[in-house]
Amino acid sequence: ITQFTSNAQYVQCAMGRVPATEPYAAICNYGFFYAWVVLVILLLLFFFYLITPCFCCCRGCCGLCGGKGRAKDGYRRCSRCVNGTCLIMFFIIGGLGIAGFVYGGIYILETRLVEVADNTVDLTSSHITNISSSLSASETETFSFFDSAQQTVEAKNATLMSQVTATSTDLKNMQDTVSERSASPASWYCGSL
């Protein structure tokens, strides 16, 4: 709570709507939410405790009726019960209690679904990142292999070209020598002697 810097964070925490990335998300989304649930249950129990004598009185439990009342069919009934106020309070508070439990169930289900969705998204993102990293590594390795192969081929081509050039030069020299000897065979023969 000491990390809150605005009133909106207090409201989010009280409602249990703190993003999961915040360090206090678990306390707000679970601790305070269940505290609210316990508080609502206690309030409902208190209100039911207040209206139960009157409600039982409507059913004829005269022993639980206290205070002022009037006789009807041999039972002492509370005046609040006779004019219907007790039933109205019972249905209002009961309706609020049911609505609270329904909202709590929906909220818990929604929170769980959001957590599952977030975990699924995180897991999918992690898989995508791993696949992307693997593809990048494979691509780099493939390019490195092709670069090395290309350099090897270029080196062999250069060596082959130098050998071809040297062979061509030797052949040309031999051709020149043969041409000279063919032009004056006698002088070549005498000179060699």
List the helices and strands and how they pair.
Elements: H1 7-15, H2 25-58, E1 69-72, E2 75-78, H3 79-82, H4 85-183, H5 185-192
Antiparallel strand pairs: 1-2
Helix pairs in contact: 1-2, 2-4
Keywords: Membrane, Transmembrane, Transmembrane helix
Write structural notes for this entry.
The chain is mainly α. The chain has a domain at 7-123. The protein contains five helices and two strands; from the N terminus they run H-H-E-E-H-H-H. The chain has a two-stranded antiparallel ribbon with strand order 1-2. Strand 1 and strand 2 (75-78) form a beta hairpin. The relative contact order is 0.04. Mean pLDDT is 67; it is low at 59-77 and 79-83.
List keywords for this structure.
transmembrane helix, single chain, mainly alpha, 2 strands, two-stranded antiparallel sheet, rod-shaped, membrane, about 190 residues, transmembrane, 5 helices
Helix content: over 70%
Rg, alpha carbons: 49 Å
Helical stretch count?
5
Distance between the termini: 115 Å
Rough shape?
rod-shaped
Query: What about the largest sheet?
Result: 2 strands, antiparallel
Q: Name the poorly predicted regions.
A: 59-77, 79-83
Order of helices and strands: HHEEHHH
